[in-house]
Structures are given as structure tokens and as C-alpha cells.
Design goal:
With 138 residues, the chain is α+β, with helices and mostly antiparallel strands. The protein has four helices and seven strands, in the order ββαβααββββα.
């Protein structure tokens, strides 16, 4: 016959078992709240002024090899007042600390550029870059 043990609370989690042998329940990852356009633009400005932006490996490869957009052009777009938040393209990837946000602007040639960014404990990763004008012509 199995003995039922009472429930205990450990750090706000209800667990069963003997005291000292309890196993806390796993917490589900919580999807972060999506930032508003104003919050995204403000967070970009802050990251740019503090220098807490960085290029992911994927972002580096895509900007240089695939669509030939320089790092300087990306930085100019992100610092520009002419950029806009393409909110309908934003998405959340399971396990991420924040949403991926899509920013649009123009490079020095007038090409439409989309930049995917996010926010984490280290700052603002630049995830990928697409030259939309080149993508249309392929």
C-alpha cells in the first residue's frame, strides 16, 4: 500500500513528498510581453547610445555575404529617425528572452533594408539583415 504524503510549499511551488526529499515542479517558460512600437524605438535608441548592440554570427553572415549591407549602414539605419518598426513581421521564438522585432529603413543607395533585432541581458542582438530591393530582383 502506497502512503500519500502531504503537500509542501517551496518557493511558492506546491510539491508533494517528504520534507527534504521534495522535488519542485518545473516552471513553464513564460512568453515575454511584446514591446510597443514606442518601446522598441526607445530601446533601440538606448542600445545605440550605450553601444550595447552586437551582431550575431547569422546577422554578420547575412549582412555581408547575402545582401551586401555594411555594418555602418545598419548602424546608421538603427540610429536614424527615419527608421520604422514593421510590427506585423515581429515574432516570438520559443525559448527566447524577447520577441524578434523588425525595423525598416533605407541604406545610402535608397534600398529598403529590413533588420531583425531582439533584446537580451547583453544588449540588442542584430539577428539578420535583408536588402528587400535585392531580394525582389533575385
Amino acid at each position: 500500500m502506497e502512503t500519500e504524503f502531504p503537500y509542501y510549499t517551496i518557493n511558492g511551488n506546491k510539491v508533494s513528498g517528504r520534507k527534504g526529499r521534495s522535488v519542485a515542479k518545473k516552471r513553464k517558460a513564460v512568453k515575454p510581453i511584446k514591446k510597443t512600437t514606442d518601446e522598441v524605438i526607445e530601446a533601440i535608441s538606448k542600445a545605440m547610445s550605450l553601444g550595447t548592440y552586437y551582431f550575431t554570427d547569422h546577422g554578420n553572415k547575412r549582412s555581408k555575404n547575402r545582401k551586401k549591407v555594411s555594418d555602418l549602414e545598419i548602424i546608421k539605419i538603427l540610429e536614424s529617425n527615419d527608421k520604422w518598426h514593421e510590427a506585423k513581421k515581429d515574432k516570438y521564438e520559443k525559448g527566447s528572452t524577447d520577441w524578434n522585432y523588425h525595423i525598416r529603413g533605407k541604406n545610402s543607395n535608397g534600398d529598403q533594408i529590413r533588420i531583425a533585432i531582439s533584446f537580451d541581458k547583453d544588449g540588442m542582438p542584430i539577428i539578420t539583415v535583408i536588402n528587400l530591393d535585392e531580394a525582389e530582383n533575385e
